[in-house]
Amino acid sequence: VPMVAPGNVQVHVINSTLAKVHWDTVPLKTVRGHLQGYRVYYWKVQSLSRRSRRHIEKNILTFRGNKTFGMLPGLEPYSSYKLNVRVVNGKGEGPASPDKVFKTPEGVPSSPSFLKITNPTLDSLTLEWGSPTHPNGILTSYTLKFQPINNTHELGPLVEIRIPANESSLILKNLNYSTRYKFYFNAQTSVGSGSQITEEAVTIMDE
């Protein structure tokens, strides 16, 4: 198997899900056989928004030939990763380069995990929601948009409300009675807005 590890391993983080790794080629005489390529092992150490450590799964990408760089796609935003690089010949792989740590920046969050509308009265509704399963960063706020839908399914004026990130429920007051409303709800990080979840609910009729 090859005798030495690739040196001068550098990681350039391109965005929250993509990084580029560079290394120096090894001297051909140390390959001790036919150079097949370079293999990058990389794994997520932890999510920076949640401190929980979980089962660590190693990802492996092989770059054929005498390459000096490779792309690592499909990374998780706002996470800490480690990687190392090894040279590969027909017999197997050589020693690993020292582990290199890199961090991905924040991304936009996934949609809130649920949106539930309860306690309809004549002029109010209660909204409850769950935070995104993948915050992909530090949540800064939620945005709620809602509008009435009339009997011919036409949409009325859209109202928008910003809600602090630490809230998980809201009572909407001063609504029209016996009216169907459509709700659009999403979360934000400093990078931007995540995908929205939609729901409909009706205030009760005037007795």
Question: What report would you give on this structure?
Answer:
InterPro entries: FN3_dom, FN3_sf, Ig-like_fold, Neural/epithelial_adhesion. Residues 5-107, 111-207 form the Fibronectin type-III domain. This is NRCAM protein. One of its GO terms (cellular component) is neuron projection. The protein has 207 residues and is an all-beta fold. The protein has two domains: 7-104, Immunoglobulins (Immunoglobulin-like, Sandwich); 112-202, Immunoglobulins (Immunoglobulin-like, Sandwich), CATH 2.60.40.10. The protein has strands at 7-15, 18-24, 35-47, 58-64, 69-72, 79-89, 100-103, 112-118, 125-132, 141-149, 159-164, 169-172, 180-189, 192-193, 197-202. Strands 10, 11, 13, 14 and 15 form a five-stranded antiparallel β-sheet that branches. The protein has a four-stranded antiparallel β-sheet with strand order 4-3-6-7, with no helix packed on it. The protein is rod-shaped, with a radius of gyration of 26 Å.
Give the helices and strands, then pairings.
Elements: E1 7-15, E2 18-24, E3 35-47, E4 58-64, E5 69-72, E6 79-89, E7 100-103, E8 112-118, E9 125-132, E10 141-149, E11 159-164, E12 169-172, E13 180-189, E14 192-193, E15 197-202
Protein name: NRCAM protein
Keywords: Disulfide bond, Immunoglobulin domain, Repeat
GO cellular component, one term: neuron projection
